[in-house]
Amino acid sequence: MSARTVSTEELELSLRGISKHFGGVRAVADVSIDVRRGEIMSVIGPNGAGKTSVLNMVSGFYHPDTGTISLKGADITNEKPSEIARLGVARTFQNIALFKGLSVLDNLMLGRHVRMKAGVLSSILYWGPAQREEVEHRRWVESLIDFLKLQDLRKQPAGALAYGLQKRVELGRALALDPSLLLLDEPMAGMNQEEKEDMARYVLDVNEEWGTTVVLIEHDMGVVMDISDRIAVLDRGEKIAEGNADEVRANPAVIQAYLGAGEQSAEAAHG
Amino acid sequence: MVEWEFLILLLTNGVLIGLMYALIALGFVLIYKATDAINFAQGEFVMFASLIVVFAILAFGAPLWLAIAVGVGGMIAFGFGLERVVLRPLIGRPVVAVIMATIGLAAMLRGIGPMLFGSGTQSLALPISDAPIIWGPLFISPIQMLGAGVSICFLAVFGWFFLKSRKGIAMRAVADNQQVAMAMGINVERYFALAWAMAGIVSALGGVVWGNMLGVDVQLALVGLKVFPVVILGGLDSIVGAIVGGIIVGVVENVAAGYLDPIVGGGTKDFAPYVLMILVLMFRPYGIFGKQIIERI
Known about the structure:
The structure holds 2 protein chains of 2 kinds.
Chain A: E1 11-22, E2 25-36, E3 40-44, H1 51-59, E4 66-71, E5 74-75, H2 81-86, E6 89-91, H3 104-111, H4 120-125, H5 128-147, H6 163-176, E7 181-185, H7 193-210, E8 213-217, H8 221-227, E9 230-235, E10 238-243, H9 245-250, H10 252-258, H11 261-270
Parallel strand pairs in A: 3-8, 3-9, 6-7, 7-8
Antiparallel strand pairs in A: 1-2, 1-4, 4-5, 9-10
Chain B: H1 3-35, H2 42-60, H3 64-87, H4 95-117, E1 133-135, E2 138-140, H5 142-164, H6 166-176, H7 178-183, H8 188-214, H9 227-234, H10 239-259, H11 261-264, H12 268-283
Antiparallel strand pairs in B: 1-2
């Protein structure tokens, strides 16, 4: 649908005709989405449209019944989640999924997990390479803490933080993986306007400064229209539209899917 | 003997035996912390380990150190194998499925152990004296000292592991939320296997000290029953709790036996810890040190 044709080398992520059924429910039907390297691609749609199912298939939590998923040209359709993370895909979750009993610092350090190489024994004994590696990762995480302005919260148990801060720590944990592809599942849900603006700023900064490709699921149309390079619209498991903000806003199928509510959001975004 | 001396004797022996309970409870806590699974076969692990050690001595004439090494190695292999064959297919299933699997496993081990290694009661001799150390009013048996020492070492090592080491923290993350841990690139299966192997090591050494004290046969698995009051008192996922719970159970047992047995004619030792357990559950359903989330159990 996009006017410009894109060569496969420029694609960070490519979904080709993926479908997923859960029992008799058709969650995702023949969806193809291409995400170009370095862009912010939003996936929107009414509740139950299959947005999170798509994200979960990219993460490898479950695998599509048909179709293929490729990351930087390599097929990852049936890879394990831990392997996909290793390949540079990080994500946040719709419901905050921090390790609540662990400190903010430990949560962020866990994000570094895939970048740590020391074996079990040397880590347990905390000798030589393991210790050097730890120091190196700690330095990396400290710069992340500065970036996200979490300096005073390092030692706090993650579960004790305010909601907006937990969302920010969860973003930090995903960034700690140093991902090339960042999947964000409703990062602004339940936030007030100021928190939303902060979060949008962080996403834009990460995208611009680190060149990280972002796939964003979000219900706040204002934010989506503002920060997305392109938008894909899902409805009842099918992709009904794709394009930049203006194209999507003007698409009759999108307006139909949102049944008026979407028109209002779209207008709000205009204003 | 004077009254207070009698009490001190009861308390000391209670603490020592309690630390030995803690050693067994530790295996249980390790599994729960890492996999969120309740292992009803902990006592059987201990029994099975001691059977391996005794078998290595009797059938092959292995020296004690080698037999213990074989026991530890055997239990590590057993832990890995168990995780691979029985528990891995249950990852992501309801916790109840894992509990049922461990109950089945317990019954299997009680059957297979005697089948492989013989059913008579064997003694597991250690190169330490049977004669109690007498120190003032105290009578302390050397095996209890050894058991308590082993227990304290393990508790310190694992306490550090879970609080400070990367692998330990990753293991807690796995227990907290498997799916999210996977998305962090943590290989959940590998951590499960590691946890079961660690429980195997603890069980093997528990098997040696308990086997020496009680004799090695199927009945040894019954020490596993003491795990439940210990971990309920201390909290299912707390290593410090395992120590404190163990000591409380040991002391309550001894004091009840010392003061109540003469009145009621015996047997209070066996049920006093459970009375206490029920009382604690009424006021602190998550134990004394446990995390305050109980809906998943």
